[in-house]
Design goal:
The chain is an alpha+beta fold and about 425 residues long. The protein has one domain: Cytochrome P450 (Cytochrome p450), CATH 1.10.630.10. It has helices at about 20-30, 45-55, 80-90, 105-115, 120-145, 150-165, 170-180, 200-215, 225-230, 240-270, 275-280, 285-295, 330, 365-385, 390-395, and strands at about 30-35, 40-45, 60, 145, 305, 310-315, 315-320, 325, 385-390, 420-425. The strands form three sheets. Strands 1-2-8-5-3 form a five-stranded mixed beta sheet, sandwiched between helices.
Length: about 425
């Protein structure tokens, strides 16, 4: 595709399969450039992205997961629209979720979340990851094939998050059925065809509300009790709904993005036998491999911000009320920061500088969890297999692959990845 100016990144589907040439086109024009269809300021430069991520005073996160749709219900006029944002932010979808909160509310709720993600709990959860990965891989290797997203990554990440939050084992299958029972691409967050509801995660809200209320009435020696009795950093007790929101956000956001990370990682492993051998011979390289995967195929294409006041980034004027898209996937391929950015380089010295998890106060708190899940899944799969290859029946021969990506302007990831697995000798 060459008509990048005519392409509609948000409503069209012509950039779904490969958005990177479009990102490069924008960056060559200017690392901060307004796309012509919806007036969104696209930020494709690394330094410019970091500047916005680390300036919550100027850039509100109220629209972080919705971007230009549907927008605030009133015109944004003047040199400072902070008052309008505060008056109407509750009318935006996902307004009760941590990613859309601004200080000081954000600080209190993130602090509550970090009280749940303690080092001890994460260590216990990693023990569960190893057991869970082994159990799932047993079946896949015996079959000699799998569809990685549905057969492994989806169930694996869901069960890991369920274990982390203490969801009773008896409810695990109910969670999977309710949250992964369909495969409608139009339900993907950021799909132009997906209607945005105000609280689209009713199932999680309802379940965690029951759990929290029950444990507050009758505390037990379990993780859900710790969740229910967690306090804000100042020692005050949250409302039940506050705890539910934090648990729901961790469950939904962490699960979906990690599935996409795993799919991208195993796609590289299967397409690159040389890298596969290196990782099998030296598993200590797996953490570096995960970081380069995050840089190369960021699970989140970008985050949105709304300019509170007139400002400038990279020498470009940004009027108050402008919707800004910080394009993580483009910033992670900025040649000013990463040499040969379109090449997957396992030995890249600065791969960890990527912004796949954002930066600043909204840096993804589940980053360590996602890294651990990827490390465990990759290590176990490589240990249990002699060879992992792409199914030509499903995706075509090398050099002429057919891959289908989620039709969303926010998330980046394969919808399916069919692999053939040769057992280790």
């Amino acid at each position: 595709m060459t008509d990048f100016d005519g392409a509609d990144f948000f409503r069209g589907d012509e950039l779904i399969a490969d958005p990177y040439p479009y990102f490069d086109h924008l960056r060559r024009r200017c690392p901060v450039h307004a796309e012509p269809h919806h007036g969104v300021m696209m930020v494709t430069g690394y330094d410019e992205a970091v500047a916005i991520f680390t300036d919550p005073e100027t850039f509100s996160s109220c629209n972080s997961v919705t971007g230009p749709f549907p927008g605030l219900p009133v015109p944004l006029e003047g040199d400072d629209v902070s008052e309008v944002i505060e008056r109407y932010r509750d009318q935006l979808p996902f307004s009760d979720q941590l990613p859309t909160m601004d200080p000081p509310e954000h600080k209190a709720h993130r602090g509550l979340l970090m009280r749940l993600l303690t080092p001890k709990r994460l260590r216990e959860n990693e023990d569960f990851m190893w057991r869970r990965a082994d159990g799932q891989i047993d079946d896949l290797v015996a079959r000699g094939e799998c569809e990685l997203v549905g057969d492994f990554a989806g169930p694996f990440t869901l069960y890991v998050i369920a274990d982390l939050l203490g969801v009773p084992q008896a409810d695990h299958e109910t969670f999977r059925r309710e949250l992964q029972g369909g495969n409608d691409p139009n339900r993907a967050l950021g799909s132009a065809k997906r209607p945005l509801g105000h609280t689209p995660l009713e199932f999680l809200y309802d379940r965690f509300a029951v759990y929290v209320e029950d444990r507050r009435r009758q505390p037990r020696d379990d993780v859900l009790t710790s969740l229910a009795l967690a306090t804000f950093p100042d020692g005050s007790t949250p409302e039940v709904i506050d705890v539910v929101r934090v648990a729901t956000n961790l469950f939904s956001a962490g699960q979906e993005t990690t599935v996409r990370l795993l799919a991208a990682a195993f796609q590289v492993i299967a397409e690159r036998p040389d890298l596969q051998r290196r990782l099998q011979d030296d598993p200590d390289l797996i953490p570096d491999f995960v970081e380069e995967c995050l840089r190369f195929e960021s699970p989140v294409k970008g985050d949105f911000r709304l300019a509170r006041r007139h400002t400038s980034i990279g020498g470009v004027d940004i009027p108050a009320g402008t919707t800004v898209m910080v394009v993580n996937g483009a910033a992670n391929r900025d040649p000013r920061r990463f040499t040969e950015p379109s090449e997957f380089d396992l030995d890249r010295a600065n791969a960890r500088e990527h912004v796949a998890f954002g930066r600043g106060i909204h840096a993804c708190p589940g980053g360590p969890l996602a890294r651990a899940e990827a490390r465990v899944a990759i290590a176990r799969m490589l240990e249990r297999t002699g060879d992992i290859t792409i199914s030509e029946a499903a995706h075509g021969p090398a050099g002429d692959r057919r891959y289908e990506y989620a039709p969303t302007y926010i998330l980046r990831g394969l919808r399916r990845l069919h692999l053939e697995l040769t057992p280790a000798h």
